[in-house]
């Protein structure tokens, strides 16, 4: 089991799962006050933008059918109707049915940055941040990452954050459930909050500072 350090320092682990030192975290990123309302808004924007609304029904103007009046207006004793394509008839158009649409919410850049800092600070408060080193020496084999995660914490989801995209790490975690890897430039508040553990490299910290 991992032993935590105090303050804004976290233990660093190698690919073999051995403790190799301490990683100091910048206070301006990991030591700020958590804004829960902003985090909720950021998560809502992210999840909404991932949705696709592809449901579509046809209106009375789109269904197939004759345009002729189905029977005369008066003298039949029946309700007056003008089209067999009316919604009241079987095979007619649908009233107020779903339509394909694209919903996109936006969040100002400053709010995105503040939400990311809040998420990182919240994760550190929850003792879910650890350092990771030696990824450049990874073989790309899944069992290597699995072995490391088992020594860190085998029962939780994890997000591995690297400085740049590393194809060998991406390939290694593809078959591991609840484990993802992202470069520092692509992380967001949702991905951080979604995972129980945040495994971050020193290179990723430098990218975040910039």
Structure description:
The chain is an alpha/beta fold. It has two domains: 9-51 and 108-209, Ribosomal protein L4/L1 (Ribosomal Protein L4, Chain: A); 53-102, no CATH class. 33% of the residues lie in helices and 14% in strands. It contains seven helices and six strands. The chain has helices at residues 27-30, 36-50, 109-125, 142-153, 167-173, 189-194, 202-209; strands at residues 9-13, 19-24, 129-132, 158-162, 179-183, 197-201. It has a six-stranded mixed β-sheet. Strand 4, helix 5 and strand 5 form a beta-alpha-beta unit. The chain is elongated, with a radius of gyration of 27 Å. The two termini are 33 Å apart. Residues 1-6 have low confidence and may be disordered.
CATH top level of the largest domain? Alpha Beta
Mean pLDDT, to the nearest integer, reads 89
Shape: elongated
- Name the beta content range: 5-15%
CATH fold node name of the largest domain:
Ribosomal Protein L4, Chain: A
Strand order of the biggest β-sheet: 2-1-3-6-4-5
- How many β-strand stretches? 6
Number of helices: 7
The helix fraction, in percent, is: 25-40%
Q: What is the CATH architecture annotation of the largest domain?
A: 3-Layer(aba) Sandwich
Summarize it.
With 210 residues, this protein is of the alpha/beta class.
Write the layout of secondary structure elements.
Elements: E1 9-13, E2 19-24, H1 27-30, H2 36-50, H3 109-125, E3 129-132, H4 142-153, E4 158-162, H5 167-173, E5 179-183, H6 189-194, E6 197-201, H7 202-209
Parallel strand pairs: 1-3, 3-6, 4-5, 4-6
Antiparallel strand pairs: 1-2
């Amino acid at each position: 089991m991992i032993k935590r350090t105090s303050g804004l320092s976290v233990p660093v682990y190698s690919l073999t799962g051995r403790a190799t030192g301490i990683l100091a975290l910048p206070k301006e990123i990991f030591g700020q006050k958590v804004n829960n309302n902003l985090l909720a808004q950021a998560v809502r924007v992210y999840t909404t933008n991932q949705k696709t609304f592809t449901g579509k029904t046809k209106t009375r103007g789109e269904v197939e059918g004759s345009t002729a009046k189905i029977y005369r207006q008066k003298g039949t004793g029946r309700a007056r109707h003008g089209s067999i394509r009316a919604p009241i008839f079987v095979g007619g158009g649908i009233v107020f049915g779903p339509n394909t649409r694209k919903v996109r919410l936006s969040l100002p850049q400053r709010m995105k940055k503040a939400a990311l800092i809040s998420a990182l600070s919240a994760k550190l408060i929850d003792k879910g941040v650890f350092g990771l080193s030696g990824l450049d020496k990874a073989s790309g084999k899944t069992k290597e990452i699995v072995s490391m995660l088992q020594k860190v914490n085998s029962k939780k989801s994890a997000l591995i954050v690297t400085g740049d995209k590393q194809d060998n790490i991406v390939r290694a975690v593809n078959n591991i459930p609840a484990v993802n890897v992202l470069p520092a430039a692509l992380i967001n508040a949702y991905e951080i909050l979604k995972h129980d553990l945040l495994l971050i490299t020193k290179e990723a910290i430098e990218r975040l500072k910039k």
